[in-house]
Each structure stands twice: as structure tokens, then as C-alpha cells.
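Budget justification aside, the reviewers requested a transparent look at the raw inputs and outputs of the sequence design task funded under Objective 1. We therefore reproduce one unedited record. The lines immediately below are the C-alpha cells for a 377-residue chain.
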């Protein structure tokens, strides 16, 4: 008797007997995933999360979870003939993502709410919902690859320009076992849009989202001021010796590494924001070399290696400290199972608390997790 071959999602049964929940944002990526799996004969259930107020969302373009996007996801489900549900996660999203986003900025950090959303909402509560629906797995439109070695491994997307591994570093091994990423092997976004046209999806030409979904027009300071009244109180711009060079309009308007918009021109060499001190309401500026960092403390580490993270004194890996920067060689020294000190072989500029530091194999595409940068230099 022959064994049942694995289907495209890795299960030893026909697609028709394999239930998959697809997290649908209303964009072209997740829409193509849902349509493709439906065409292959899988038992597809589409789920879209309502993450914040519909009324505000309807007037907002270019975000991932607005009212128009919920409509677009429902339309794809109707065209492809599978059920679609909208779940109200507004309170969860506010508590798990938006509140921390505001507090992080008030503390002088530069948060990455999209990572927290994946970690605390999509890959936690939504994943639990998928299991409640007796789904065999949950699929998303993220550009990242899941490969099977000794167990499931996380790998960068084939298309480096679309790779989203920085935003998914906190995916745990247990979550990875349940998740599927059908787009990670594609060579370009053009291939995804071509598939959308093939399936006759109305979102084929829909622009990619650019903003944080709950921050209209990228104006995060306005969102923080609304959540935390008084957070934009003015204060002094000072140099590293404490001399006052000018006034600022609220610490939340500034990020480490910023050069433009300081309003202190004509002082000779360019000055950059090198530190934020919310307690003193100070923006500290200095020369570019003052931004240079070699050591980075991390906490809340999620490790995806085959051995325990703290089983070695050091790991020689590549690390990425901003989503837009390429991985750089580093030595990662564990302090515990969830804390480490990273030593960069070449210094980086503008490393900021609140950002992620993601671990990659020195060669190849494997992602080994990462951690959160948690204090100033």
C-alpha cells in the first residue's frame, strides 16, 4: 500500500480534507494566497481582523486594516467561493499594540508596532481562533519562507526586496509549526500581481500599504498626543555637554539619527539626534560619529536555532538592526535564554531602543530569531 503523498501545505491528505485559515488583510498578497489555495481545492476559511474604529478607518488610505480593506477581503472570498469572517479585535489591538507604541515613544524609544501585532495578535489570538475552527494550519501573505529541516525553519524570502523576516523574528517554533507562507518563494511582487489577475481579483492593482495601519498619513506624533495628552510639551535641544542650542516641540517628534527638522542650522558641522531624555524633556544632539555603536543589549529574545540559545558562550551570526539595512556580521553573546549582548564587527549608526535586532545565518537564508534593543548606548 502506498503512502499518501504530501499536499502543497505539507499534509498527507488531499487538499479537500485540509482546512486552512487564511489571514486576509484585504491587500493583494493575502488575497492571492486565499485564491490560490481555494483553486487548489483546499477547505479555505478567510478571516479579517477589525483592529480599530471603522469610522476613522474608512477615511484612511494606504493602511492594512481599514474598512475598505475588509470589504475587499470579503469580495475576494465571494468571488472564489469560500467563507469569510470579520473578527473584532479592537480592544486586544489597542491593549497589545497601540498602548505600548505610545508608551515607547514617551520613553524615548522607537517602537516597531507591526512586529508586536504579528507577535501578540495575528500569531497569537488569530492563530488560536484558527485552531478553534479545526484548521490544519494558518496561511498568511507575508514574504518569508518556512522550510523543514530537523523541524520547521524560518528563512528569508526569495525576493530580498520583499523579505519581511525583520517583522517576523518573534515567531516561535510552535507557531512556525502551524503557519504557512505560500508567497515566500516568489521572485517578485509582479508575480503576485500576475496571479491576482489570473484569478480575476479586483485587488490586482491595489497599492501596497505604506503606513502603520493606525497612524494616518504617517503622523505618529498626533496619535500619541491624542492617547497621551501633554506628551508633546516643548523643551531644550542640547549638545552632549548640556549647552542649550535651541527649542524643540516635543520629544515624541524626534528619533535617534535624525538630522533634518531640528531648527538649529548655522552651527558648523551637521548635528544629529544622538539621545532622547523624556524625563528632562531634552533632545541631545551631536556629530555623526556620536551615533556609532558597536555593542547592543537585547532582551525578549526569540531563538529559532536547533540548539538552546544559552548552550554556547557566543554565536557568530549576521544581524539586522533596522528593517531597511542589510544584515551585518556580529558576535551574539547570551546572558540568559532571553538576553544577550551583541558586538558588531563594524559599527552601526543610529541604533535605537525599541527597534529589533534580528539574527541570520552567516551564509544562506535561515533566520535564527532575534531580540529587542532595550536601552541607550
Amino acid at each position: 500500500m502506498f503512502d499518501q503523498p504530501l499536499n502543497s501545505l505539507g499534509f498527507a491528505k488531499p487538499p479537500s480534507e485540509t482546512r486552512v485559515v487564511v489571514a486576509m488583510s484585504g491587500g493583494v498578497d493575502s488575497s492571492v494566497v486565499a485564491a490560490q489555495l481555494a483553486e487548489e481545492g483546499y477547505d479555505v476559511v478567510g478571516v479579517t481582523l477589525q483592529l480599530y474604529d471603522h469610522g476613522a478607518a474608512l477615511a484612511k488610505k494606504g493602511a492594512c486594516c481599514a474598512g475598505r480593506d475588509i470589504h475587499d477581503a470579503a469580495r475576494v472570498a465571494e468571488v472564489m467561493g469560500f467563507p469569510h469572517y470579520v473578527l473584532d479585535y479592537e480592544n486586544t489591538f489597542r491593549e497589545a499594540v497601540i498602548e505600548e507604541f505610545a508608551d515607547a515613544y514617551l520613553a524615548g524609544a522607537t517602537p516597531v508596532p507591526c512586529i508586536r501585532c504579528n507577535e501578540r495578535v495575528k500569531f497569537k489570538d488569530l492563530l488560536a481562533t484558527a485552531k478553534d475552527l479545526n484548521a490544519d494550519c494558518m496561511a498568511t501573505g507575508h514574504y518569508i519562507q518556512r522550510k523543514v529541516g530537523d523541524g520547521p525553519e524560518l528563512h528569508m524570502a526569495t525576493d530580498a526586496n520583499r523579505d519581511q523576516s525583520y517583522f517576523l523574528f518573534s515567531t516561535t517554533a510552535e507557531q512556525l509549526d502551524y503557519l504557512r507562507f505560500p508567497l515566500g518563494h516568489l521572485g517578485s511582487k509582479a508575480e503576485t500581481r500576475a496571479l491576482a489577475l489570473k484569478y480575476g481579483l479586483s485587488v490586482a492593482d491595489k497599492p501596497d500599504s505604506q503606513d502603520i495601519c493606525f497612524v494616518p498619513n504617517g503622523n505618529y506624533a498626533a496619535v500619541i498626543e491624542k492617547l497621551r495628552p501633554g506628551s508633546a510639551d516643548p523643551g531644550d535641544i542640547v549638545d552632549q555637554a548640556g549647552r542649550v542650542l535651541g527649542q524643540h516641540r516635543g520629544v515624541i517628534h524626534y528619533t535617534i539619527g535624525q538630522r533634518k527638522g531640528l531648527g538649529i542650522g548655522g552651527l558648523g558641522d551637521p548635528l544629529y539626534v544622538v539621545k532622547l531624555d523624556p524625563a528632562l524633556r531634552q533632545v541631545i544632539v551631536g556629530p555623526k560619529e556620536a551615533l556609532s555603536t558597536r555593542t547592543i543589549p537585547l532582551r525578549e529574545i526569540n531563538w529559532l536555532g536547533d540548539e538552546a540559545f544559552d548552550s554556547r558562550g557566543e554565536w557568530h551570526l549576521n544581524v539586522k538592526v533596522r528593517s531597511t539595512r542589510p544584515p551585518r556580521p556580529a558576535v551574539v553573546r547570551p546572558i540568559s535564554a532571553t538576553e544577550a549582548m551583541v558586538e558588531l564587527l563594524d559599527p552601526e549608526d543610529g541604533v535605537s531602543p525599541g527597534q529589533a535586532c534580528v539574527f541570520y545565518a552567516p551564509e544562506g537564508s535561515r533566520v535564527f530569531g532575534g531580540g529587542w534593543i532595550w536601552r541607550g548606548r
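Residues 54-65 have pLDDT under 50 and may be disordered. Residues 305 and 368 are 6 Å apart (CA to CA). Computational costs for records of this kind are itemized in the attached budget.
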